[in-house]
Amino acid sequence: MEEIKKQAGFTLIETTLILMIVMVISSAVIYGTSNKVIELEEKRFFRQFQLDVQRAQALALSQEQYIVLKFGNKGTSYSTTNSNITLFENRLPSHISLSEDSKLKELIFLPSGMVRNFGSFAFLTSKETKLVTVHIGTGKLAFSADKLSADAE
After folding, report:
1. How many other β-carbons are positioned within 10 Å of the β-carbon of residue 108?
2. Whole-number Å distance between alpha carbons of 111 and 113
3. How many Cβ atoms are within 10 Å of 45's Cβ, its own excluded?
4. Rounded-to-integer distance, Cα 50 and Cα 21, Å
5. Residues 101-130: pLDDT tens digits?
6. Is residue 82 within 8 Å of residue 66, measured between CB atoms?
7. Under a CB-based contact definition with an 8 Å cutoff, are residues 92 and 104 in contact?
């Protein structure tokens, strides 16, 4: 008679247990990463919005024309125009939109680079409402949004 050799390996229960541990760890990593991605996307958007406002102000100065930065499409996009010609436009990330309660819906730059209207843009994000305040002054446009802060000249 031939002897049956005992095969070494893992049982079904051991394999299932290891698989469950891997799934729990990977789901925790994915959950933590998705929140970080949303946070980074919000930071990127507010930085890009700041740069677009500065660009609109620079265009008003260089072209000596009125430049209008206006939100449309229910607060999910904005465009910059002069004399009904669209200079550039951007869409907001899917989890950010301009609030209906926002004091500002558009920003008008005079040929001198000053802003005609001032106040706050209120943006709804996934966690809270963030304000971007536009101050009027002697040719300066100050930005403030939670931790975002910079000046455009």
Report:
1. 15
2. 5
3. 19
4. 44
5. 888 899 999 998 888 888 888 899 888 888
6. yes
7. no
